[in-house]
Amino acid sequence: MTTPDGHDLPQPPANSPPPGQSAAGNTGTTVQIGGSNTGNINITQRPKLPITPIPRGDREAALEPLWAHTPTPQRAANLLAAHGLAVIVGERGTGRRTSAVRTLHTHLSTPAGPPQLFDLAADWEEDEVPEREILPEPIAGHGYLIDATSRHLTENAARALMTWAQELHDAGSCLVITGNQRDWRGETRFEIGAVRPHAVQVARNHLAHAGSDAQAGWLQPDPQRAATRGLLRQAAPDRTAGVLSDLLTRSVSPSDAVAIAGRLRNIDPERMASAVERRDKNPPSSQEHEQGIREIRRIREEVLLWTNFLEQTLTGTGTRGQDRMMLLAAAYLEGAPLELCIKAATAFGSRDESLARRYREGRSPRRRLSDVGVDITTNDTAAFHTRPGLALSAIRMDWHHWADERTETRQWLARITAPNGVAEAWTEQIGSRLLELSITAVESPFFTILDTWTSTSAGEERLRIVTELITRAAETEELARDAHKQLLDWAPKPHAHRRKVVAQACAGRYGTRWPHMALVRLRHILAIDDEATRIAATALTNHAAQSTDGFRRVVETIETWFERYPTHLAGSRAFLALTDPAHSVLNTLMSAAQATPAIRDFLINGWMQTLRQPDVRDHAHQILLGWARAAHEGRLDRTATFGILTDVRNAHTPLDAMSRFLYGSPDQDDHALIEARLALANLRACNHTQCSELRCPLKEAAESLPDTSAAGGTGEPRL
Known about the structure:
two-stranded antiparallel ribbon
């Protein structure tokens, strides 16, 4: 046995009696027990918070030649050198994450090589404090980054992180936290305001790094520099240099600048050169000159996602009604048949025949769509090939421009995506576009629509879509906090569809990235017996089977549920799922129980707690029967299996499922069960397992019996 810091504990004599004392719920490194004790004391800790290496793309963006210089990283690195902690605060679009990665590189890089940088998941609840045992151990050269925008940091949580950062600092490691101005509740001396990098520099760096030198030159603020670069003047100056020098302003965010650079790369340099040549080599009044100006304007619109085009389209005369709705329907249903877009447009607003008739009068629907920028493919579907990016841009501008019709727009989207609605088959695409809209939208419609989609009769495909969308929202910086809250709000409520979404999310990527928060939500799910409960049980067993940390996390969590919520069914249902012979994790449990008294104690105490719950009586009996059959068929070790069940029998008065298991039932008399009863009848009672009931008669009786079991006590150690 070893302590958490790796030191060996004194070993007991070879023939020493098993301990008669335990330290339930202990998480410290020292246990003092009065009286004689020569047995093992199991001191275990909760699993560490999940860490993932910072993606390569994020690290590249923070280094030369992509890095756009600001004073933020050096100021933050100075704080790391002094305290091991820096908090970079700023609104979205200030480049706080890239600055944080640059800060870690600046502080930790050595001639020996680059540092090891990790994202640390803030995987604890709003009212919890990240205890020291779940935080990573300090390792020299390791840097950690926490995004505080995805969750609320209390003063106590901030204090715990400051204490941990001092440990990191002493070991040659460090921590950087990013967030909005109001996200950090700790000492202000650790704060650094994020300085927004110049958008033009960001875009030009990305273009130059990608080999798009011509496009980078279009953003050149001083065209003359391109003509005089080097020792000799260029023989043929590039006429396109600086042609888009006013495209980006300082208010453009770094992420938007990178996106604009990506769209600039798609513009053929020959196309721009031809447009500039037409403009410059022809008289101002000529048609060729005007064609050049229009083409340059079109390129600008394409790169800026058609802002001016949409402004005129959405606010011009006659577009408030039919034309606007035609564009909006095509934007949400890009790729859908034209007839479907037309039907969706006519469903906006009141279902008045006169409204539908107006769409059939005047210009044809195809002409209306063409006039507002929609392409019509040869397959008669709506597309935006000649105006890439127009669809999402139109959705954003419509939401912001027609603020007084947001409620009506939400109702329209809910109506056309309802079961048997005209656009039901396009629900996932509509949801994806709402998610993108909600990143920057006021009065975000995303979660309201998810509520609507799960409030009515929802099939499996609809629930899969909602699960995927809310998982993506949790992975999106701007929506993460609301997504966590939505899942927590849905979990305890008796709404079958929403409970199922929560269970599916926790069983998927959400549970992998935030295992602790997922387990909290699964505890609420397990309170009610329905389909969501079965998904939750499977999620628990899968998580326990994936890794050693996952196994420890699930066992420790179930122990905590038994301790904190003794009358709640979550602990019992989770325990029965974990001990079901149908799942491979039971073999891991039984093997661990033979080597580790703490796991044996977990199984004994788990059965004792579960057998007290009448609501799981039938399920418990089926699992007990499964144990007997598995032992009979050789899938479980007979001695270990019946030894544990003997301790359970002797530690508590047999009730309910255990009574049926031990003493018979009219419909249960197969050979495996008879063999199990015979084995239990021939095994003697132990004297070291203490019942948690104060008046249990076995407490006194056990003291007079010799012990033949190797169980390690009834303590409930935290793993």
